Amino acid sequence: MISLVIPLFNEEEIIDRLYQRLLFCARTWNEEYEIIFVNDGSTDSTFQQVCRIAEKDPHIKLISFTRNFGHQAAVSAGIRYASGDLVAVMDADLQDPPEDLVRFFQKCREGYDVVYAIRVKRKETIIKKGCYWLFYRMLSFLADIEIPIDAGDFCVMNRKVCNVLNALPEANRFVRGLRSWTGYRQIGLAYERNERVAGKSKYGFMKLINLALDGFINFSNKPLRIIMFTGILIGCFSFILGFLVFIQYTTDTTVWGYNPRQARGWTSLILSVLFLGGTQLFALGILGEYIGRLFQETKKRPPYLIERLVNFQHPLILYPGDGKKLTNNNYCC
Q1: pLDDT score for 333
Q2: CA distance readout (Å), 274 to 77, 267, 279
């Protein structure tokens, strides 16, 4: 059986076209399937439209959150509720072509545990392309594990990998990083990322920054090491410079027009203070990001809360680890 997980956030303009494309592609899979939409707190008619489709098509299932918990939480919930032996993840905007999924399924049937998509072309603005290019290469450099360059959440995983992901306890999740962390047998397939079919991207600049920080901090301690080595270098430079200035002062020597007995040094002092102050604030900011994420994890709040399930046969569980199972009356439209 194949499970396809698709997060949704205010995608009312694209639901019908997305469903028609998926329906056409599903005929080529030649297997039983389910399509799990995860409504991530949409404020438009996304929920109602998916419910309308689900009433006519039992293959369509819906998970609806109590509010917007974020894209990665929605992907995690879909993977947790998926029942297929192969689980695919893709975005709703059709930038990831569902027609390519059949290639991914074939590779998984050949014995691969994870088949992920590698974006060879992007039909986006130059600035956005540049930001993505820089992000993936910085992530590859900083990460303590090998994370493929230009590989997003578009992928297919087998049940073994999904079970591992579902068992991980962390609430602050970066799914593509966790997918790489599991190891197993993985392969990337190249594809061309299309333009968004309708509507506007819900990933604004700040959301992209937060996603990048999740990737850097959740899978690397190199920023902390960079802070340490930067401090060591600045300390060594300051010591050497101070020693040279002391020699100049005792010998009353002028180097490049500078003599410590004659120069007042106000400008250089202020610039030094500003430089060191900025460096310290930057270092504190990095430490704060790590400490903030530790604080979030220690509170042990769930990554999402589910309000309703549609077309699922098992009881509603509010969040991962919740022992209270609600009755079937709580998950109908």
Answers
A1: 40
A2: 46, 11, 8
Rounded to 5 degrees, φ, ψ at 135 are: -60, -50
Check the CA dihedral 282-285-290-291 and report its sign: positive
For residue 28, what are the domain limits? 2-202+302-330
Mark out the alpha helices in 110-158 (DSSP H runs).
Answer: 126-142
Q: Which amino acid is at 9?
A: F
Residue 185 within any structural domain of the chain: yes
CA distance linking residue 136 with residue 147, whole number of Å: 9
Q: How many domains does the chain have?
A: 2
Banded model confidence at residue 291, pLDDT cuts 50, 70, 90: confident
Both tokens assigned to 250? 């005792």
- Quote the DSSP letter at residue 55: H
Length of the chain: 333
227 Cβ contact partners less than 8 Å away, ≥ 6 residues apart: 283, 286, 287
pLDDT value for 329: 38
